[in-house]
Design a protein that fits this description.
mainly beta; five-stranded mixed β-sheet; three-stranded antiparallel β-sheet
């Protein structure tokens, strides 16, 4: 028998093995709480043995009352600012899953972790795979009983603080061959040029600057021209 505040769930059966398993017991009528199972065995001549007891916690209530907040007021794609956020009021002992997307597109960022404090901070998230736009953080908490809460969200704008220095793609034929640059202020080292000077030239919409660094050879720096 199982004893809780609501009417008990009862049952009986035959013992067929020294270590028998009784499964499929419906305890949906019992309130969430600590459930106590009491079992006794009666032999073939009607002698009743002593009660043996075990217990288990029943929890069917999903996590609620938690919120998330992104720490940054903006994310700067030029400096590749990492994102961090806080989970407030999460159920300690549970876990969380998060997803970050951008309305500008790009590859979503996924992650997870454990809730260990009432205010859980998650730092150092690389969102460089997401394009500029409004980033949406969605967090779901799952408690120790595997109940899943409702997604809660926070948003932040991802911008490029220096759009005229952003390079998308540029092919340059140099003394060592053709190179494709894809990123922000791309540098390459290793050109065997002895002069220590600084020059530049324009190729299409791009300003190509190179400067000599002792021990490193030429370093290429590419900037998008002001429009």
């Amino acid at each position: 028998m199982i004893h809780v505040d609501t009417p008990a769930v009862t049952g009986s059966g035959n013992v067929t093995l020294p270590n028998d398993t009784i499964s499929g017991i419906d305890v949906s009528s019992l309130n969430d709480d600590n459930l106590t199972l009491t079992v006794y065995i009666t032999d073939t001549v009607g002698n009743q043995g002593e009660d043996v007891i075990d217990s288990v916690s029943k929890d069917t209530i999903e996590p609620s009352g938690y919120s998330v907040s992104i720490d940054q007021s903006t994310i700067d794609s030029y400096y590749n600012t990492p994102l961090s956020f806080k989970i407030n009021g999460g159920e300690i002992g549970g876990t969380f899953n998060y997803t970050i997307t951008s309305d500008g597109g790009g590859k979503e960022v996924l992650g997870n972790g454990n809730i260990t404090t009432d205010v859980e901070q998650i730092t150092g998230i690389d969102v460089s795979s997401l394009n500029d736009g409004v980033l949406t953080l969605s967090v779901i908490i799952i408690d120790e009983a595997s109940n899943q809460g409702t997604a809660t969200i926070s948003t932040v704008s991802k911008i490029n603080s220096q759009p005229n220095l952003r390079v998308t793609e540029c092919d340059i034929t140099g003394i060592n061959g053709t190179y494709t640059f894809d990123g922000i202020k791309c540098d390459l080292h290793g050109f065997n040029v002895e002069e220590q000077n600084r020059e530049s030239y324009i190729k299409g919409d791009y300003l190509i600057i190179w400067a000599y660094y002792e021990g490193d050879g030429w370093a290429w720096e590419i900037q998008k021209q002001m429009i």
